[in-house]
Amino acid sequence: MFIKFFSPKTIPVYHCCTGHLGTLTWGKVTEYGLHHLDTISLESAIRYPNLQFTENRFRYHCLRTVQEVFPAFLLDCYMRIIGRKPIFIKVFEHWIFFTSNSWIFPNDNSVSLQNEMSDIDQK
Question: So which domain of life are we looking at (predicted)?
Fold first, then answer.
């Protein structure tokens, strides 16, 4: 009875995404990636990292076909030959969906909770 009387109409969500406070762009990802590329071992990598940005749709689809779809297709063929389930085309389709869209997760509840905390609790 007490819980029903005082329960909020919406459930507040708290998460630790920086959201709009520290936006991560593809430019920053490229900068960080190129900076740390020399310190990462690429001996067992399937291919060397290569980032290219374009606003031209035709060039984008050509690059995607040559650099992602065709290698994924070849890897799936290899997986079939060795008797395993082909997964690479499906992985790249999901990858494109998440990397081609903008994702905004507002963290207003977390920020307001942080502001309500005392200095000792924030440490």
Answer: Eukaryota
- State how far the alpha carbon of 57 is from the alpha carbons of 53, 63, 83, 111, in Å: 11, 10, 36, 39
pLDDT in tens, 81-98: 999 999 999 998 888 888
- SS3 category, 15: coil
- Two tokens at 39? 């310190």
Burial class (CB in 10 A: 0-12, 13-18, 19+), 59: exposed
Residue type, 56: N
Nearest partner of 96 among 120, 72, 121, 122, judged by Cα: 72
Give pLDDT tens digits for 20-52: 667 777 788 888 887 887 777 777 777 777 778
Length of the chain: 123
d(CA 89, CA 60): 17
Mean of pLDDT values over 1-14: 65
Q: Which of 99, 104, 77, 97 has its CA nearest to residue 88?
A: 77
